[in-house]
Design a protein that fits this description.
Two copies of one chain form a homodimer. The first copy, chain A, has 296 residues and is mostly helical. The first copy, chain A, is built from 15 helices and two strands. At the A-B interface, helix 2, helix 6, helix 7 and helix 8 of A face helix 2, helix 6, helix 7 and helix 8 of B. Chains A, B: Keywords: Isoprene biosynthesis, Magnesium, Metal-binding, Transferase.
């Protein structure tokens, strides 16, 4: 199976599970469930869930067991997009080429959709299968890690600094802060959740963490580069929006060539951290290549 | 110790713990932590945390052990107030006599404050003390219950229906739906969390659940009555706001006298469910009287 086929297979499993875990549209009050599904099934690449599943496999675990955690992290990611798009935040009308949640359902529902996805994420984690008495302890540990990654030391902290930086010249340190929190924190939580739930030892966990942090950075730098060089059709939003919004990016602070070199270097570090693993980590290796060469 | 002294003692313990669990104002990015503390320390009565502590005591448990759960539920309650007050929702400028979060910190930060409090609530639950191997299992169970109570089948579902009902004539069934979710769900989760974490047996848990559901209903009906008969100084907001906003309330749908009778009946049912317990549930009994006769 090629990498793209494997990614599509995993996305299929994740979408099927998300469809099962999300309340049906017909559940009262219907509008919130319809609006949750609108944003969850909006064509995301499902990279974070793939990281959860692939980290489980890399340490000899079972992907079915960690599936609720993979879905939980995708719901967290979706909640953050819905709230970031709000008029009071980034005020975005389009996301992946479709109207944003608040443009379709209104601001009040969009706020509640984010709240509901965040809440459901923790419900899914608490519902992870317990096959042995030790499993509850691992689940509690994962919930603590995910809550830490999603909180003001992670995802939310990154968004706060991003908002405060709007229209300002920021330094490299602040740019790093924003991205290690907005992107890095959930990448890190994804691999760590999959690995912890599969009984990873401390050294495996440490290597996978280095992998995730560097993969997250490469992903973000490429995101910034695509905003300059990308194809609008493929990325689903207008190019040049960062420049037009005076947004600090890696190319803006370091120059385009240096930013590309940084993305390659992060990718190499991510791959290097996997030297510790055998063929069971091949998907994680190929994912680095995919992130570095992606066009959307 | 009188009931009011006991309530104040518990609020003191909870406030001290909240102060410890909430990130310091000096933690970067400072504004989010300052804004979280602004709403958490806004003079709440701490009834929900008191329910967690008192349920633990009622089943022979230790209040210090369940303190993180008591704080988690207060954070959930606060998050829901901050988001409900937003311009896109109830658009309230005042809460407990002070400007609402978004009036002080702006809408973007207020959205993120709610997100951060919700996230921190789950982090606190995952950090509950594990004194024996069985404790992790109880913690996972409590996280699942709290997530259910806070989600679209609970708190969020109630808020969705409340918003959809604005300016409309709603029936008694819909009014019940809103209040069993907006108030009842967290009351229920409070007593159940305290009891589960203290090793309650199924019958104790069942009785405490009936207690909480009826206490929550009495609380809400009295809230509606205070909006008509209350003292603005004591309740910290203008009276008559429900009538002015065409809001469905128990007095509006049933008449004032019948609403008062319903509150008394719910209070009796709450007290009746405690017949099963001895003096260790006295605080829970006195809390019913307090809720029924409160002036704020």
């Amino acid at each position: 199976m090629s990498f793209k086929e494997e990614l599509a297979r995993q996305a299929g499993i994740v979408d099927e599970a998300l469809n099962e875990y999300l309340p049906q549209n017909s559940n009262y009050p219907e509008v919130i469930h319809e609006a949750m599904r609108y944003s969850v099934f909006a064509g995301g690449k499902r990279l974070r869930p793939a990281l959860v599943l692939a980290s489980a496999r890399a340490v000899g675990g079972d992907e079915t067991t960690v599936l609720p955690a993979a879905c939980a992290i995708e719901l967290l990611h979706t909640y953050s997009l819905v709230h970031d798009d709000l008029p009071a935040m980034d005020n975005d009308d389009l996301r992946r080429g479709r109207p944003t949640n608040h443009k379709v359902y209104g601001e009040a529902i969009a706020v509640l959709v984010g709240d509901a996805l965040l809440t459901l994420a923790f419900k899914l984690l608490a519902g992870l299968p317990q096959n042995s008495p030790a499993d509850a302890g691992m689940i509690v540990r994962v919930i603590a890690e995910v809550a830490q990654a999603a909180g003001t030391a992670g995802l939310i902290g990154g968004q706060v600094v991003d908002i405060l930086s709007a229209g300002k010249l920021i330094d490299k340190h602040t740019l790093d802060y924003i991205h290690t929190r907005k992107t890095g924190a959930l990448y890190r939580a994804s691999v760590r959740s999959g690995a912890i739930l599969s009984g990873a030892n401390p050294e495996q966990l440490n290597k996978l963490t280095i992998y995730a942090e560097n993969l997250g950075l490469a992903f973000q730098i490429i995101d910034d580069i695509l905003d300059i060089e990308g194809d609008e059709q493929k990325i689903g939003k207008p190019v040049g929006s960062d420049v037009n919004n005076d947004k600090a990016t890696y190319p803006a602070l370091y120059g385009l060539a240096a930013a590309k070199a940084m993305a390659r270097q992060s990718a190499e570090r991510a791959t290097g951290a996997l030297d510790f693993f055998g063929a069971e980590a091949d998907f994680l290796r190929e994912l680095v290549y995919f992130v570095l060469h992606r066009e959307y």
